[in-house]
Every structure is written in structure tokens, then in C-alpha cells.
Amino acid sequence: MTPHLLASSTTPLSFSLPSFPSQRTHYIPSHVYKHPTAILLELCTSMKELQQFLPLIIKNGLYKEHLFQTKLISLFCKFGSLTDAVKVFELVEDKVDPMYHTMLKGHVHHSSLASALWFYSGMISDGVLPVVYNFSYLLKSCADNFNVKAGKMIHGQLIVNGFSRNVFAMTSVVHMYAKCGVIEDAYKMFERMPERDLVCWNTVMAGYAQNGMLNRGMELFLQMQEVEGHRPDEVTVVSILPACANFGSLKMGMSIHGYVTKSGLESFVNVETALVDMYAKCGQVGTARLVFDRMTCKTVVSWNTMIDGYAQSGNSEEALKLFDGMLDEKLRPSNVTVMAALTACADLGDLHRGQEIHALINQLELGSAVSVINSLISMLRTKWACDQSFESLL
DNA sequence: TTAGGGTTAG
């Protein structure tokens, strides 16, 4: 039994299909491409819609075609039902490579790194040639799981399969090492790349910044422009500004702000939000507010950043005023918003306001998040501690 | 099948 078969679930399908017959030839009749069902599937945006189209696929015998089999696998994965995708995959007798590639993507996105690695090994033992996308997905999963051991193994597979000069694959390798904290290896791989575009420069620069080497990150910010003539984009500045914020480096943050103004990157809402965060964390909450007020478009993240900027810098009254302003704008608060507002209530010892926010949390069904519950407990504990110290004075 | 980098809290 191949490993991917072991990954199957015993859960019944949410629909019933006849067994897929073996398709000896890779020829796909032109009527399949012209069939309206193919177009309907392309336009499918939900599991509900897909289930409505399934009878059409069965009625027209389209389930016999590789094109539709692969599309079904892809759509089940897209809508999060890996179980159904696995069932379809297993029913096909003569699988084609794209089916394996789609299933691997599904495992990465809707299961665990372990199951994706298991599926990959099954794919190789079935004689399927990996494509560069496979490595991008697998390395991203290793990075997200901080699993450098698995990352190294995939890096080895990538070399064996001839992708060590591919800019997409190698950027994923650099990202994986950097995210796992092995920045020296990330840089070694970056140096060996025959072609380095803005994305891989951004990746290695963000790697240094996020691993606490802000000066080196800043050096690369300048080097990418001076040595290779790349123009840092919105991703570059959004990658380095949080490091300036977290290290309280106002000087570097202001220098990035200068670049933002010069390059016309202010139109990006995430750039402006990162600037608000940087100023607030560097102790310049007034400047943060100026940047915030000048934003032509604000997202919930922008509001959260400013509210929390006030709350963390002891401007709790302002934080709550801005929180009210956000509600007046009819914006839906997120977990981060209510956590920031609760921090402000705790600082003020304002139990009444805290209870109002608690009611809002219940109304918006935000109370299941552990982080929100922790903030609520923290607010109540602070109030209790205030009352205790007050009583002890009496 | 159709790819790689980025913002708020903890």
C-alpha cells in the first residue's frame, strides 16, 4: 500500500459517485473543454455550489475525464474538504501527475506538515516527478512549523530534482532557513543564487530584521538599491518597519519613512499602518496619530494599531476615545481591538467600561479566543488588585 | 495542478 492510501479517511463522502474507470489515453475530448459544466466549475466559489454541480458531472459522464477528476480534487481541497479530495483521488485508477500535485497542495493547506511529507514520499514512490510548486508549498509549511530538520530534507530533494538554480524554489529555501532562525544558512543560500530579484532580497532582509539583526537588515535595504539597483517596494518597508518598532529604533524608522515619502509608497494602507506602529512603539505617539489621521483609507488593523499604541503608552483615555470612534464608523472590532481596549480599561481601573466591552465581546462572539479571555481576566484582576490596595489604605 | 517575500496582540 502506498503511503497516500494510508492517509485516507473512513468518513463517508458528502456525495456519491460511480467508480472512476481507468482512462488509458491522456486525450481529452474537445467537448469537455467546451462543456458548460467546465465553465461552471471554474466559477464555483463554495462547497455548496460545487455540490449543486456534481449531478451534472455525473449525468454527463464527465467524471471519467482526467480534467474533471483533477478539477474536483482541486475544488474539494480549495473548499477545505481534504477528505472528499482524498476519496476522489483514490477512486481514480490511472492518476495523472497534476492530481498528485493538487493533493500535495491540499495536504499542506488543510492538514499537517507530517501528512504533506507522507504524501510527498508516496508521490515519489509512485514515480511522479515533482514540480517546483511542490517545493514552494512544502518549504512554506516547514517554515510555518519552524521545522528546520524537515526543511533541510526538502532542500535536499529540491537539489536532487534540479531546482537549485530556480529563483522561486531558492527564495522558499532562504525564507525557510530565515524563519527557522538559521539566518547564516539563509544568507549562504541567498549568496549562491545565480539570479536575485527584489523578492529574494526582501526575504533575506526581513530574515535579518526578524532575527534581531536590524543593522544588517538596514545594510541590505541600502545594498539592494546601491549594488543591484532594486527599488524597495511596499513589502520591503512593511518587512523592516516592525523591526524598527520592536527595537525602538526611531532613527532607522524615520529614515524608512523618508524613503516611503520619496517613493510614493504612502498610498499603501499597510505601509501607513506599519509607520503608525513604528512611531507609537518608538515613543512618538503624537506623530503616530498624525500619520493615522492623514491616512486616506484605514483598515481595522490601522485602528487596532493606533488604539493599542495609545493603550501601551499609557494614553488609556485616548485609546478608549478612539475605540468609540471606531464603533461610530460602524467598523467591526476584531480580537486585537477588544484586547487593546481592555488593556486601557485595566490601566484606568474602569470596571464599568470593561463590562461594556465584555458585553460587546459576547455580542460579536469574540469570547472563544484564548487571547481575548486572557485580556478579560487580566482586566478583572487589575481592577481587583486596585480595589485591594485601596481597601488596605483605609 | 499554476509558485517565492510583508502590517496590529500574545
UniProtKB/TrEMBL annotation:
It comes from the Eukaryota. The keyword Ribosomal protein does not apply. GO terms for molecular function: RNA binding. Keywords: Repeat. One of its GO terms (biological process) is RNA modification. The keyword Repeat applies. InterPro entries: PPR_At4g14850-like_plant, PPR_rpt, TPR-like_helical_dom_sf. PPR repeats lie at residues 166-196, 197-232, 299-333. This is DH200=94 genomic scaffold, scaffold_1460.
